[in-house]
Amino acid sequence: MNADWVAASVRARALAQRRVGAGASRNIAAQLSLSDGLSLLANTVYADLLGNAPTLAAAERATRETVLWQLRVLAGWMPATGTRLARAAAGAYERDNILNLARGLTDGQTTAEPFDLGSLESAWPRLQLVTTAEELTDTLRTSPWGDPGPGTATALRDILTLVWLHRLSEVWAAARPWAVAVAALTVARVRLVDGAEPSARMRQLVRPLLGDRWGNAENLADLQAVLPRTAQTALREISTPDDLWRAETRLRATVETDGVRLLRSSLPGPDVVLGSMAVLAMDAWRVRAALAAAASGTGSSEVLDAVA
Question: How far apart are CA 220 and CA 192, in angstroms?
Fold first, then answer.
């Protein structure tokens, strides 16, 4: 038994047990207004930060802040050897801080308050001080995020996401299949939906996961044929690029299933904590999808139906 991880593993399982779950999320989605959907979360772990969220955007933000708070709690229970895992997992929030900052520097739009990562920050203390888009690019190059490469806001998000998942899978191998799947879905969208030429930076980040042959694929069949077998799974049962959203949704379900399996590991350790992180993140995603459906008054969620 890994005695150093006992407390963190116990806490991780306890947090995961408080998730809303698929069934309750479908009940929320069936409501006909945002306020009705929020009322069903009054006695859940999300309640404190949700409060009386006035808008869907505010409610969605609260669910993400709840998961970040849970991650910070887990980090406090981890042994020193778990610091890299916690910081790597928190990279998704630092990524979004960077994207919000970039948006504000580029078009002057008012941006959301940055997520408070506390001790889980890696480059944010330096990045938040920049005042121009050019300075942001230069600072990223000398940070753990590396060269963002050229391109649009979407391209920046793709690069930062790939860096984040690469970092997470380097820290803990159980996350590597998720990184491979996200890489496959990203290049499928870039090549077949956006019709864009992948940047040199994207090719560099994707190469260890997918190789190089995907770069010349002209259609979905060609892409599936040249991807490594482990990556082909991410695109199974997808016949057209327009269905990529279904593959992305199914990947979330896969991450959730993997998280549950890791949580059930027999011995305390990083696998249990990583599993909890995955389950909690996916639970918050389900809740966001359910609240979006409730706010629209449709009575159901096509996204949640796709993972039922």
Answer: 7
